[in-house]
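Q: We require from you a single protein entry containing the residue sequence and its fold in C-alpha cell form, and nothing else.
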Amino acid sequence: MAAAARVPPGAVTCPGMWRWSNDAPLVSGVDSGRGASPGAMSCVARAYCAAAGTRPAGVADGVRGIRSIGRADADGTTTALADHPRMTGPTTPTRVLIAGAGIAGVEAALALRAFAGDAVRTRLIDPGRRFRIPATATGRAFGVGSVEDHPLADVAARAGATLTRGTVAAVDAPRHVVMLAGGRLLTYDALIVAVGAWAEPALPGALRFAGHADTEAIRSAVEDIAASVARGASPRLAIVIPSGCAWPLAAYELALMAHEHLTASGNVARIAIVTAEETPLAAFGPDAGAAVERMLGRSGIEVQTGREVEAWRWGRLELVGGGLLPADRVIAMPVLRGPAIEGLPADARGFVTTGDDGAVSGAPDVWAVGDGTAHPVKQGAVACRQADAVAATISRRLGIPAEELAYRPALRGWVYDTGRQRFVRAGRDASADGDDLPLGWPVAKVAGRFLTPFLQAWSADAPRASVPLARAG
C-alpha cells in the first residue's frame, strides 16, 4: 500500500480513485494522484481525474458528469500513487504486467515462471487472439513445414499467466500504472514492454511481406506469375530489401521458395533480389552470406547488392543513383516503426530506449525487450534472450536466486534450401549460449530457452520435422 506523502500546497490532485488491485478498479479508495501542475498533466492523469469524477484546474466548466476538483489540504498532505513500494521480497505475489504476447512476451512469462514461480503473478496484455511464430510465415505461403497456431488465451494459461485483451496506450511509470486504449487502467509492480514494432510499407505499389497476414497475397501473386508463364509470357518477379529492413532473411527464403514452387509446376520465371545490404545477409556474417549466395546461384536467382529502390513504375524498378530493372511483380520487405508509447522514452522512430540490461531510463521497474526497443537487431531469438535476462533481473530484485544472463547479440536463423530440400542454419557466433536448444520444425524458427521446449511439448504428438535441418556450408 502506498504511504502518505507531502505535495506542495495548491497542487492539483485527484482524490479517492482506486484501491491497489490487479485490475485497478475505479472505485473509492485511499490512494490518489500526486500533485502536478495542470499544464503538465498527461492523458493518463486526465484519465485518473475523469474516472474519479473530478477535473484538473483550468478545464472549462460545463462538462457533464465532471464536478469541481478541490486542492490539497492546507498542510500539504495527501496520499500519492508515486510512492510505490520497491520489489523487495513481497509477502504477496508481485504483479508483473507484460505488454505484448508475441514471442518476447510469452518467453518472458515462461522465464518468470521458471525463475520466480509463485512469487510473481503475471498478466499478459495483447489485442490478438492467436499466437503464431512470424518466421514461419514464408513456409506457410508455400505449404512448407507446419505452423504453430494456438489460441492466445490457451498459450497464456499454459504459461502460467492471465490474458487481458487490449493495447497499452500510455505508461505513468512513477505511479506504476498503465492505461490501455479506451481508458482502462492497470497497476503493476513490474512492467515488461514487449509490444513489438509496426511494419510500414517501404515501396508504394509493391506487395508487402510482413508476416502471416500477407501470406495469401504472396501466394496469389506467385500463382499469377505461374499462370502468365503458362500463357507464354515471361513475367519477372523482384523482391526488394530496403535499408532499415529488420529481418532480410525472409526475403531470401521467399525468393527460394517462390522459385521452387514455380519450377515444380513447370512454370519457370525470372526472379531477382534487390537489396540495400552490401552482401546477402550481411548481419549474419560472411559464412551465412556465402551459403545463401550458393543457394541463390543454384536456383538462378539474380542478386543486386548495395542498391536502393526509388520507385516502381510501369513494370520497372527505378534504382537510386540511376539504373532500371524490369519487374512485373514486386514484393517489398517492410521497414519498422517503434510503438511510441506515451510516458516512455523513445528515439526518433518511436523505439523504446533502454540500457544494456533492458531497463527503461527514468521509468522505475520498467523494462523493454524485443522489436519495439531501439536495439538495432530485431529477431525472435534475440528478443527471447532479452526477455530471459529481464525475468532473471526481476527475480533477483525479489531476493530469489537467479543466474546472471548477459545478453549477447548472436544472430542465427534457418533458410529453406530448395535444392537440397532442407533448412540450413546460418549465423554468426555459433558457440553462443542457447546453441544446444532443442530444435525442430516449426519451432526451430525461434530459439527461445523456454519457448522452444514449451511449444514442442504442446505439439508432442505432431511430427518433429517435415524436412531435415543442417548447418550452413
The longest helix spans residues 380-397. Confidence is low (pLDDT under 50) at residues 1-45, 48-85, 430-444, 461-473. The CA atoms of residues 208 and 332 lie 5 Å apart.
